[in-house]
Design brief:
4 copies of one chain form a homotetramer. Chain A is an alpha/beta fold and 395 residues long. The first copy, chain A, has 9 helices and 21 strands. Chain A has a 4-stranded mixed beta sheet with strand order 1-21-20-13, with helices on one face. In chain A, strands 2-14-15-17 form a 4-stranded mixed beta sheet, covered by helices on one side. In chain A, strand 14 and strand 15 form a beta hairpin.
């Protein structure tokens, strides 16, 4: 195995669980920013497939710039309608030609975006959304790089990835309440919309979960029914929370409601009216926003999974951190990896591993951590494969 | 003074200066993401002025969704030309009517964006850029909120702000090399473009500054001249670095250059070809991306400065941190503030102050920190004023 | 019945049938210009319905500015695909508010446009077309005018309409070959596309029909099959022509074909690649372009059917001409009607009737013609109704 | 000289001057449709220049699809402002590559459009207009055709051109009143806007000129001043009319004015608010819309001047008609020319010349007319040159 520049450190600081205050946020499936992330990633994956099919290799692309311009709507209990469609701009770039053949880049991108938006169940994608592709051409140099496909690709930029493991109780709770609502609860309660935002504040052992969810107006006959569903959602969230933490959890749903106004929408996402979205501004690769933790500003979703280290290093750092947390006796581990433009992606400029040992630090832990990191880097192209096949979340 | 929920903690951890490894990044003035941030903020400020003039108060708006779709260009030593214009999409929303009078929202937004883009000296804003406004209407409820203008506004959302002080040597260095290049050096060397990206890696006492700058092709007769300017820029950056740190600094400029290719552009920004940009994805309010520090994901630029706590709390946290770092005997201070939707903005749900004392923690330090925080919160509307008048950086 | 300014003239000129040379053209159902006309009219009709349902009256609108920007495609025998979608811009204006309620103008317009495009059978409207609405607001004055709904509306502009009857043999032939192909033949021969352009040149008694039709590539296994279908189409067109004229007719289909290239498309319309379209540039209200006849330049399709005299006067002139041609002993009749802005639409500034009598002109013919014209003008609001219910062709 | 298929006929019909009723219209310089025509033609000419400079020949393009989407404005006496910018969509197609070099098609097109719009003196082209280019690629076959540059090009389509000469008194009057207002009067009276529409109705010897002009609000202190300028404009138009006809002329300016409303604008064109425009829907190549005359529906403006017979044949027909009217003893002459796709443009399928002799028809007139037509066709590439150098009006 190749020699790699891997630094291993032991930290002597309070773990996040030991800190008195913790803030965690998640923008759920149908949040305008998450929709943009999801579209960006769906477009990249669709292009990867097409490139592999038509060209035998993934060609250069980065489809990470997606913007949603909100539409206009008129929700009301028992009904409502979309007045002006949601507009989605697909930015970024993608290779449009290969050996003289044109790739249907715009077509594939638009189709993938529209397909992805079907995640918002009550959104009529054909009539209520306009998707426009302004994907630029990839520059020719980069196409060159990609052609040497058998070899390990070179880093496209100087960027870094960071990750930590394991998730704290609060983090896990935030992640789970949204995931479970989308996986199960919204099918039981049709009025629950996909646009859910969860904000957790933990002060010592008290967690407050502030949850906003864009309810779907036509599945709610009245304000009374709205309040009932809100109550049932609140109970469900409390149950999920209880499975993830023994701490005291208070759940607050749609706190901004007043006597006159409730948070209802026609489609279940605030993108229908007033709330624009942009890719790369929401959750990090672990699905969370965690100001108590080191974070990367990289918008991983939509970046090409072949040589974009801003994407790959965030994902591989997460894998490394997770394996270390699982196998070694640590309370917490942080992994940071820095790329250098033009350098092989499996050989970063530096990889830093910071561990809070459960008890004692040991030379064995150090060498084990180094080995785990080095193996993941050795096989970084597997990360690419997992991204392409949709096995890795990026937001 | 109002009672506020302010928690003060003393940390016992190594300061960033004491940590062995540190990564810091800055996307400079002409980076596509920074251009979007700058446009977002310029549009908001222009609207604030218009609203004050026409309506006597700032009306609801958030113009924080800006996307740049790269153009196409053909740079070559001694010349080159733009082939396809840069496209700028202005998203977000703004109130369009007041007392039956229409506000020229699109017009003002486009003008402000175009004016801002003049920061890129070699960009012909009239011919090489297409700016489109798709700003939506503000919702009427929110207009209501804003009308009660004498009172302290209510928080528009549940969000948080974070900040730290003082900057580490590495952070200061990164900030300064870019600032000084833009303030002075680019006027001395016309070939230096506004799109500069600085990435610093500190390992113990060795700092590596990796700098990319989009040189301007028509001010460079040949590759030789390019190399000379690169060398002079490198020297200048080393000098600036030396003023900010006594650590050993290595400066690397345009590392991706090969024998065949150099980093030249027609305009001085990579937005002319291939590099899209988006607001809120680059620097945080202190001008930096600092994965070693707590960060907020909030895109502050373009948010309304009246009641958007995602913007205000990042800025007020910075002010509090700076004053504490200046007046109290701390190595580092972190400030985190959490809002609650519908609550007065001067009364956050919680404000957390974490200090690394120089030597001993003292009850006096705690009460002083609390007083400083409370005073800044009491006068948070001054932050709004400073934003409107352009006295506070947001990226 | 109201006194109207109607001038009746008898012409002493050779009829078109007697002239030696005649040129007639028709842009068929799927021609990009006709698609734009069809969309413009479909949008207007959809808005009329919505206005009637929501407001009890048709509100001001003119949706006559539609532009198609061609996509990109890759047709090949047995298959082919769309590479970039067709872009459709909906221009014009429409009233967006009524009694404080917002009308879903953009939504309705986009839906109507998409629905109309389904006329192109092989076009995947959901994936291969992007429709954007940039319909402006109607100006408030005009809204005022429309509110006085029981009364006869006032003309919105100074414009005119012209028509003639009966159609010449050549005109009828051109109209019929396209109509019949779309009504019957294309269902028998799947490879026949909707984009058919017919150009007829008659020199004395010899008619040459030059026909271009965008064949559908995936319904054609090979160039041989293409040639066979072309031959069968040619035969069909000859048969239809023979039903409409006893003159000698030569039919030429897809004359621009060369050995290397044939006129095939993925969808059956040239709008998929290269051919943009615009409303108002194709057929006049009788479905034809007839340089031997007086024509109006007015783009009738998409104009509001309530008070837009540019639309109504072309249609009512056609009705008048047809009735005169049917009931009176004339070889040809031409009707021209001029409006004056602000004047009741049932009382034009002048209506001119020019007749070529079969044999003798008579005072009785004159008074009958005047009566027919006056009655149609008296009941001009019926024309509006017929337009709204789709009973009158506008292109 | 090549044998050409030229048919010459003598007509025995009343000339237009002898007819009792005549309708003529002109959409002036700043009318939204005319602006689109002007932009379309300006873009084509700019591309011709670039192609010649960069490629040594004019490459394939047709830039005849231009649409203006109106802005929003707020005119008031003494001031007013633009609220939302005018949006201009440039459609059509143009060759983007030549010998591996990219042509700056979008850039050149946008610049030409913006430059042209400066004809509207009070329009701030930089701030009040958004111009977007969606010009498609030219198809490769056609590029092939154009490369054989020394030879006479082949017709790109089956289309026709028509023209007549001389202009009738009414036609000349309509043309002149607008031309002279733009050439002289608007510089004397700053409040006169470029958007002037002239509609003439002649009944026997009485001509009514209905003129609409978009006055410029900031050059008018009050309604009184507006009325004064209107009166002076009316006098000026009457004088110009008197120079062109001895018939009785009544001039009506801005007839739609009411006590409450006057026709004022911020910029001098109705495109600023409410009135969209499209290329090819306004004046024919002689600058007029003349329902009493044969007309072509071809939108000549923006078509390529090399082989687009829809453009060239309208222009060459006009030249032929003018020369015949000048040299031969005819009251009127009509010229119609029909192309055949793939046939040399100097050899149309048929050219038809119809003359109303002043007195007697003669074989000499016939041969002279044929000679004149044949010579113009022989030298049809001169027409191309004149178009490129801007010497021929197309609208």
């Amino acid at each position: 195995m190749r020699e790699r520049n891997i630094a291993v450190k032991f930290l002597r600081v309070p773990s996040v669980e030991e800190q008195e205050i913790e803030i965690v946020e998640r923008k759920g499936l149908g949040h305008p920013d998450s929709l943009c992330d999801g579209i960006a990633e769906a477009v990249s994956r669709a292009l990867c497939e097409e490139y592999k099919k038509k060209c035998g290799a993934i060609l250069h692309h980065n489809t990470d710039k997606v913007q949603i311009v909100a539409g206009r709507s008129n929700p009301e209990f028992g009904g409502g309608e979309i007045l002006s469609p949601i507009y989605v701009l697909l930015g970024g770039r993608a290779t449009r030609e290969f050996n003289g053949n044109e790739i249907a880049v715009d077509k594939i991108a638009i189709r993938a975006a529209r397909e992805y938006l079907k995640n918002v169940r009550n959104l009529d994608v054909n009539n209520d959304v306009v998707v426009e592709s302004r994907l630029g051409k990839g520059s020719s140099d980069l196409i060159e790089v990609f052609k040497r496909k058998k070899e390990v690709p070179m880093a496209n930029d100087t960027s870094f990835g960071v990750a930590h493991a394991p998730l704290s109780e609060t983090e896990r709770t935030v992640l789970e309440v949204e995931n479970r609502t989308m996986q199960y609860f919204r099918f039981r309660e049709k009025a629950v919309g996909e646009d859910m935002k969860v904000m957790a504040l933990r002060v010592k052992d008290k967690i407050t979960l502030t949850v906003g969810d864009a309810f779907v107006s036509r599945h709610l006959a009245s304000r009374e029914e709205y309040e009932e569903v809100k109550r049932r959602l609140s109970e469900f969230l409390s149950e999920v929370a209880a499975e993830n933490t023994s701490r005291n959890v208070e759940v607050l749903v749609n706190r901004a409601d007043t006597e006159e106004s409730a948070y209802i929408t026609v489609t279940g996402t605030s993108a229908e009216m007033g709330d624009d979205g942009a890719a790369g501004r929401g959750n990090r690769c672990n699905g969370l926003i965690t100001p108590n933790r080191p974070m990367s500003m990289e918008g991983a979703s939509g970046k090409n999974p072949v040589n974009h280290t801003g994407k790959l290093y965030n994902l591989v750092a997460m894998k490394i951190a997770e394996e270390i947390a699982e196998k070694l006796s640590v309370k917490e581990v942080y992994v940071k990896i820095l790329s250098e433009i033009g350098r092989r992606i499996d050989d970063p400029k530096i990889a830093i591993i910071e561990m809070l040992p459960e008890s004692e630090a040991s030379p064995n832990m150090e060498s084990e951590a180094r080995r785990i990191a080095s193996e993941w880097l050795e096989n970084i192209q597997e990360i690419s494969e997992m991204v392409i096949s949709g096995k890795l979340r990026t937001f």
